[in-house]
Write a structure and sequence with these properties.
Quinone Oxidoreductase, Chain A, domain 1; seven-stranded mixed beta sheet; Rossmann fold; 10 helices; 26% helix; 2 domains; globular; 351 residues; disordered C terminus; binds zinc ion; six-stranded parallel beta sheet; alpha/beta
Length: 351
């Protein structure tokens, strides 16, 4: 099989020919159809974070594929089913977080495309218990971005307990932001999208943002203030100044939701305003299997649109550059084994 392999932190990916992996006990073998390129993959390849990936690394945690093999003891999901393999490749199932429904916080978790092999490959083995079924109405090119960008922003909106008629400011309209706009709308909020690129702001409007703010041409805090301020600010951009802008844009009782993981990962906030305004600071990391099932269900029901472009795995390093320079409309998806599928336009929710 073809796979993109990164041999050490900071090295570029090399497309290599590797043997198709064997599913071990409790695992399924997938013929990978699609895998999205998430910014986290780039951080993992570069070794940007305090926790390092396992090298050599096959990145990719937005993998979607067809079950083609069962390891010992596995009967579900059945052969031929389409499933997604998210960042949460495996959780322990026994710690307090797993038991109380917060498996995304599991202390014993293993992560796809980080400590486990990922989906930048034609085949992938995954823990059968942690793959999530993709409904028939969801095209694999749409399913890939939903597997991380979708579930992450969906869970961020849930964790912020957004109420109808609140205002949500979304900082960063990319792979995550274009979906965050839609989830915030789905719970009834008014949405202000903030970005530094006019194209992305147009996309946000197209997807239902009530207002857009260009942070490159003016002060986003003042602009959001003129719109009545934000009750919830979701930070999806990695630029260091954005966290403070998001904080300053909040109304009393506001919630600052941190999702993006910048390489320079520290910020300072004023205690005085945080206390007097009753601000909550929330860290939100991906979501659970149930969250992802809900994300797929909403998409199958035609409630969301995924903006994604397909790329070939051979062009993996060019695709990374496209993401880094911000030339990508929303998400890039590596697609293989999709030639025999219906065109994506046939999917009810893609336009
Ligand atoms: Zn991701
Ligand atoms: Zn656990």
């Amino acid at each position: 099989m073809k796979a993109a392999v990164v041999n050490r932190a900071g090295a570029s990916a090399q497309v290599e020919e590797l043997p198709v992996p064997e599913p071990g006990p409790g695992q399924v073998l997938l013929r990978v159809e699609t895998c999205g390129l998430c910014h986290t993959d780039i951080h993992a390849m570069n070794g940007d974070w305090p926790v390092a990936a396992t090298f050599p690394l096959i990145p990719g945690h937005e993998a979607v594929g067809i079950v083609e093999g069962h390891g010992a003891g596995v009967t579900e999901p059945r052969m031929g089913r389409r499933v997604a393999v998210p960042w949460l490749g495996r959780a322990c199932g026994r710690c307090r977080y797993c038991v109380d429904g917060r498996e995304n916080l599991c202390v014993g978790q293993a992560n796809t495309g980080f400590s486990l092999p990922g989906g930048y490959a034609e085949y992938l083995v995954a823990d059968a218990r942690f793959v999530v079924a993709v409904p028939d109405g969801v095209h694999p090119v749409d399913a890939a971005p939903l597997t991380c960008a979708g579930v992450t922003t969906y869970a961020a909106v849930k964790n912020a307990r957004v109420r109808p008629d609140e205002t949500v400011a979304i900082f960063g309209v990319g792979g995550l932001g274009h979906l965050a706009v839609q989830y915030a709308r789905l719970v009834g909020a008014k949405v202000i999208a903030v970005d530094v690129t006019e194209d992305k702001l147009e996309l946000a409007e197209d997807l239902g943002a009530d207002h857009v703010v260009n942070a490159a041409t003016g002060d986003p805090v003042a602009a959001i203030g003129r719109l009545g301020g934000a009750d919830v600010a979701i930070v999806l951009a990695v630029a260091p100044e954005v966290t403070r802008q998001a904080f300053d844009a909040l109304n009393r009782g506001g919630r600052l939701v941190l999702v993006a993981l910048p390489a320079a990962g520290e910020f300072t906030l004023p205690v005085f305003q945080t206390v007097l305004k009753g601000i909550s600071i929330i860290g939100s990391i991906v979501g659970t299997r149930q969250d992802l099932a809900e994300v797929f269900d909403l998409h199958a029901a035609g409630r969301t649109r995924v903006i994604a472009e397909e790329r070939d795995l051979e062009g993996v390093n060019d695709a990374v550059q496209e993401v880094l320079t911000g030339r990508v409309p929303a998400r890039l998806v590596f697609a293989h084994h999709t030639a025999d599928l219906l065109p994506r336009q046939a999917s009810p929710s893609s336009r």
